[in-house]
Here is the input.
Amino acid sequence: MTEQRSPEPVSRLRWLVPALLALAWLAVGAFSGPYAGKLSEVAVNDSSAFLPSSAESTEVRELQTAFSDTEATPVVVVAERSGGLTGEDFAYLEAVSAELAELASNVGPPPAPVPSSGEAPEAARIVVLVDDSGETDGAVERIREILAEDRPDGLTALVTGQAALGADLGEAFGGVDGLLLLVAATVVAVILVLVYRSPLLPLVVLLSGVFALGLASFTVYLLADAGIVDLNGQSQGILFILVFGAATDYALLLVARFRERLRAEPDRLRAVRSALRGTIEPIAASAGTVVLGVLCLLFSELESNQGLGPVAAIGIGASFLASVTFLPAMLALLGRAAFWPRRPAADGRAHRSKLWGRVAALVAARPRLVWASTAAVLLIAAAFMTKLKADGTAQTDVFLTEVDSVTGQEVLAEHFPGGAGAPAVIIADADEAEAVAAAAEVDGVAEVTVGADESGEPVVAGGLVMIEAVLEDAPDSDAAIDTVERLREAVHAVDGADAKVGGATAVQLDTLQTSERDEKVIIPIVLAVVLVVLVLLLRSIVAPLLLVATVVLSFGATMGVSALVFNHLLGFPGADPAVVLFGFVFLVALGIDYNIFLMTRVREEAQRLGTRAGTLRGLVTTGGVITSAGVVLAATFSALAVLPILFLAQIAFVVAFGVMLDTILVRSLLVPALAVDIGRGIWWPSRLGVRDRVPK
Here is the structure.
């Protein structure tokens, strides 16, 4: 007969530690919370700033400084009237040009309107060079304000070009610290209320996530402000989602074990300590795996990817700290009241899930059929991965809503060479005129000019000249990228010219090439890191290899389904290569989480019951909480879709679908069925595989 332990004597000292922890986190939250809204102040969304110094476009950008004291970005004003511009329109554009020339941000010569070709031109453009060292978003906003003043009726006037695209991108990311947080918090709150059927516990869990986000935001702000890490709108949004998702997942695991212990333990403090001891290993292993996984992005050559690594790691670290300090403290203070009105009684009865009991029975009855059929479904889905168009998209395709910069680019392309306002820049030896001739002969180049002074003489700096090549196609189009590749081949072939090609299109080309390189380097590193963590955690080789294989299979299936959805259901123009890289990093790191939650419990049960019974017992006891965690994480990542950015919408679908696929099929059926079918050999070479007392 088991002796029933009586509650410990009431002592104020017993509550001192949890009370102090709770108060400390309240102070941390009050101080650091506002920094979540300040991150956009230190975020940079200029893609050219993220390329490595070895990129050809970066070298050109550095060489350009010899030709000008300031770095400039072109802003293009394009005006259009169907049927032809009127005299009133030209008078308006002359007045606009004069006002633009007076702008403090203008670093070029006085801009003049250039009409399109034809006897009755229907469009005109004005190119303004904006100082990069200033606030280009503010300059674009001021230019748009000028265009809105006294514009003739029926005349369309839009602002486009690299600076305008950047300004519209910044505005799209403006919802990161407002709308995104609101949607994510609301989704988590609704799910937690449904899971716990309690009004108080979801509030405590949400507070844990909010405090973790405040701490993470404060840390990232300091590092980004000091120039130690790079932060952009994408990594900012992912940080918010990761913190909420991870903090809630860890809370679900701890709270489930706490409720389990309350049924066997009358004293709430002992129940909290026992729950924390039982979950600290899988939670720490989960957090450690994700941290190490995202830090693999430091091997990227793109500084935007490098920046996401430590930013995401800081978010996971803050979630872990809040989950193992603030949350246990609040559970200790609240005890059974946290679950009101469904307070668990200390009656010694274990909760039994009928649903997961049936799933375990299915796995036990036909394990080989279960894992073989599940793997077959995943393999069929993975076969469609080759249909994913992940070779990059035009910058104008980044937006999911209509913006002026994209519309302006379309209007500009109708009446002028597509690359007008954003030419390719060639830096070459001043004595090699052949470079100019070679550039002019490239298919897709509309016009080639050499930088000249007011007398028309070529400007020479350090023995080099700057050549501008206007492309026929829009600077962010696939056709323009192909043209820049041909342009590089042509000018590189000129002996002695030492020519290099840069500019906006070259930046995009170098970014795509660097992203492709990153995939080949980082994906194997992530797999190796995750495998090592699992080997150390499970003290086995077979189980980690199987777990990694199942997660890779799940990733392949996710990308296959994503290809079908993106291409045929949503009609997306394509995907950035980073979608595959980020999808892999997050799905492998986060997908392994649920296998860690499952297999650590299975290992614990197998030590008492044997592998077969331990696997089934682990599946039943963790089924509900891990599924809830998967739903929460999928829902929080889905919130990224509220921002009208193609990349984030695709990442939202990939991670949300992948997490649910991993939760429902891989962790619930594939992994348990493999464990039951293989038996104690899954723990080889650990002693658990030798000591398994229950036959396979």
About this structure: Confidence is low (pLDDT under 50) at residues 1-10. The chain has four domains: 17-56+198-351, 71-172, 365-402+510-696, 423-502. The first strand starts at residue 72 and ends at 80.
